[in-house]
Amino acid sequence: MVLIKSISGIRGTLGDDENSLNPDNLSRFVHAFSLFQRKKNRNKKITIAVGRDGRESGQKFIKIVNKTLSICGIHVVNIDLTTTPTAQLVIIKKKLSGGIMLTASHNPKNWNALKFFNDKGEFLSEHDVKEILDIESNNLTPQINNIDLGKINDLKDSFRLHIDEILNLKHVNPQKIRDKKFKIVVDGINSSGGIIIPMLLEILNVEVIKINCVPDGNFAHDPEPLDKNLSELKKEVLAHNADLGIAVDPDVDRLVFVSEKGETLGEENTLISCADYILSKESGPAVTNLSSSMGLRDVCTKYNVECFSAKVGEINVVEKMKAVNAIIGGEGNGGIIYPESHYGRDALVGVGLLLTSLALKDKSISKVFEELPKYHMLKEKINIDANLNFNEIKIKLKSAFQNYSFNETDGLKIENKSSWIHVRKSNTEPIIRIYIESKQAEISKSMFNSVKKALS
Length: 456
Prior knowledge:
With 456 residues, the chain is of the alpha/beta class. The chain is built from 15 helices and 20 strands. It has a seven-stranded mixed beta sheet, with helices on both faces. It has a five-stranded antiparallel beta sheet with strand order 16-20-19-18-17, covered by helices on one side. Helix 2 links the parallel strand 3 (47-52) and strand 4 (75-81). The radius of gyration is 22 Å and the shape is globular.
C-alpha cells in the first residue's frame, strides 16, 4: 500500500491499512484542510468546491469529503463528476474560498487522491501544503462544538461554464473551427474527459467518434496518455479517416494528439505547438519545467522571447509564470497553462488553441507538427524504497558525467547545449523519474545506459 503526501496533494492506493487512502485517512486530511481554511478565513463564510474524476472510488469518497466539510461548518459546492480545470474555473467564477478535487490523475484506478486549491483556483503553495500536513500529523482537528453544519449545494452546469470560457478566449476562433468540419476521435479513458471533450467538439461542429467515453472509471488502458497506451485511438483514427485523435488523462489536465496518419504526436509537443501558435499572435515569455523538451526554448528563440524553467509541479510553473509575466506555459506531460483563462493545466484550452491553429493555417495536424523542433526524449522510471538516499545517487551521476553542467534546483539535471538528463524523485509515485533528451534516439539510449551503469 502507498500513501504519498506532497506538493501535489495526498495520493495513495486504496486499502484498509494506515498507509493507504482509506475513508479514515481521507476524512483526517479533509479535517486538516478545514482547519487550515478556518484559520485563514476567520469570521468569514467559507465555501469549497468539491469534484471527482470518473474513478469508482470517487463516488464513495466525495460523500465523505462533503460530509466532513459540512460537519466543520464549511459550505460545499458539489460539482460531482468533473475535471480538475473545470473545478479550478468554478472556484474562480463563483468566487469560492478554495476547492478539493478527488483524482489520482494518470495513476491506475486503484489509486485516488486529494488535490487542494486556494481561492484563486490554483494549487496550494508548498508552505500551505506543509501547514495542512502539520495539522494532520499533530492530530489537530477543527473544534466543531457550536458550529452550524455547512450547506451542501449541487452545481449542475460546470461543464458548460468551462466550455463557454474556452469559446470566449481571445485566440480561440470558434467560427473558423466550425467551418473546417473536423472529424476527430476522442479517447476519454472512461472518465470525465469522455463527456466534456466531445461536448466542446460538438459545439464546434466537429464530427466526434467516441471511444472509452463512459465515465465509469473502468480505464480501458493505462490512463497515462503515452504512445504505448494509445493503440486503440491510433487504430480508430485510421479506420474512420479522421483528421486527428485526442487523448486525455482521467482529470483532463493533460492532452495528447494523434495525427491523421495514426501516429502519436508526443505529449511534449502539445505545449510546444500551442506556444508556437500563441507566440505567433503576441509577444511574451513562456515557462515550462526542468523535465520538459528543449523544443519550447527553440520556439521562444524563433519569436525572440525568453523561455524560463521551473521545478516540476504545476504550482511551481505557475509561480514562475507569474514572476516573469509569461503569456503561456505548462509541462511536457501534455499540460497547457494559459493565463488568459486561468493558472492551471487545461486540456480544453489546448484543444481550442490547436484546432484554431489548424483552421487558420489550413494544414493537417501532421504538417503543422512537422514544422516544430525535433528532439528525442526518453522517459524511464525506477522503483525505490522509502530509505533511499538521493544524495548518493547525485554523487554517482556527477562522477559519471563530469563534462556536463549540473542544476540541482529539482533533483539533478545534467546538461549541455544539445542534450540533458533529469533525475528526480516523483511527487506522485514511489519512483525515481529519469528523463533524457537529445537530437537522436541513439544518443538518448546511450545516455540512459550510462545512467544505469553509474547507478548499478
